[in-house]
Amino acid sequence: MVVRRVKADSDHLESLEQLRFALDVRMEVQIKINDVEWYIGFDSEGKRIISKDNGDFDYHFKDTDDVDEILDYVIDGKKIRDQWQDIVIVAM
Question: What is the pLDDT along the chain (92 residues), one digit of tens a residue?
Fold first, then answer.
C-alpha cells in the first residue's frame, strides 16, 4: 500500500488504513488536530511516543508496535481513529 494523500496538494489522508499503515511501518508522523501539532514517533531509546507542540507534553505508549494503542489514544475527548478525517498531515 502506498501512503498517498487525497490529492497531491491535500494535507489529508484518504482513509484510516493509510494512517494505520504509516504507523505500522514505523513512520514518524506529524499531525494537527484542532490546530495543535502532535508528533508520533520514537524517543532516543526507541520507545514510541506522542508529543504535543514539540515536547510540551510527551506520552510513552506501553507497546511500541501496537498501532491500535496509538489509534485509540484520546485527544480532545476523541480517539485518533475517530477523528482521522479532521487530521491535518504536517509531515510523514
Answer: 445 544 556 788 788 999 999 999 999 999 999 999 999 999 999 999 999 997 888 899 998 889 999 999 999 999 999 999 999 999 88
Structure-block grid coordinates of residue 49: 511516543
Q: Which helix (H) or strand (E) holds 78?
A: strand 78-79
Angle at 13 between CA 11 and CA 17, to 5 degrees: 160
Kind and range of the H or E run holding 68 = helix 67-71
* Residue of 39, 30, 33 whose CA lies nearest to 75: 33
Neighbour order of strands in the sheet with 88-91: 57-60, 48-52, 36-42, 29-33, 88-91
The length of the chain, given as a count of residues: 92
